[in-house]
Design a protein that fits this description.
three-stranded mixed sheet, 190 residues
């Protein structure tokens, strides 16, 4: 059973000028590889990559050891990708959920979050005062979060409704939490 990493990579990068974030160059290869490597090297047994707007290109770029799952409903928001990813990972005991535009992710961060996670809780990394990724869920909670999610919010409402079970874990020393949303953020890829 073990742990599955889920990478949400379905968006169209509209704030970035319409570019696939998964395919942005990072350290001589696609950014997707950095994220997948951190999940696998950090202790995930499998990785599911949810594709959408650039489905064929992102699926082709998936490194060995990953499963690409296409989300044809990606224009309806992140909730649809969350559902596809969790459904594809449902055979696992828990998931580590992250976004693809996280160049600062490290295997140390993933390993730490998996080590401190306790059944019956949701482990949420905190970077200073900001929540981040990957968020670790037991599969039962992930299924509920995915089922309840709407629009572009992902698991946010589930986390808010289950605040007492969310373990906020300070992770600032383990990763740079900056993401890639706008052309100005591309400097984070250097």
């Amino acid at each position: 059973m073990g742990t599955a990493g889920i990478v949400l990579a379905a968006g169209d990068g509209s704030r970035l000028g319409g570019r696939a974030k998964a395919l942005l160059p990072h350290r001589g290869r696609p950014l997707l590889h950095t994220v997948v490597d951190a999940l696998l090297d950090g202790g995930c047994d499998a990785v599911v990559v949810v594709t959408g707007a650039y489905g064929d290109d992102v699926a082709t770029a998936c490194p060995p050891g990953t499963t690409a799952v296409h989300n044809p409903d990606w224009p309806d928001g992140m909730s649809t990708s969350l559902r596809r990813g969790v459904d594809a990972a449902r055979a696992h005991d828990r998931i580590a959920l992250t976004v693809v535009d996280f160049p600062g992710i490290t295997s140390e961060l993933v390993r730490y979050l998996l080590d401190v996670h306790r059944p019956g809780t949701v482990t949420l990394p905190i970077f200073g005062d900001r929540p981040g990724h990957p968020v670790v869920f037991d599969i039962a909670d992930a299924l509920v979060a995915a089922d309840e999610a709407t629009g572009d919010e992902g698991a946010r409402s589930f986390l808010a409704r289950n605040r007492e079970r969310v373990r906020r874990v300070e992770c600032t020393p383990l990763a740079d939490a900056g993401d890639i949303d706008t052309p100005e953020d591309l400097q984070r890829l250097d």
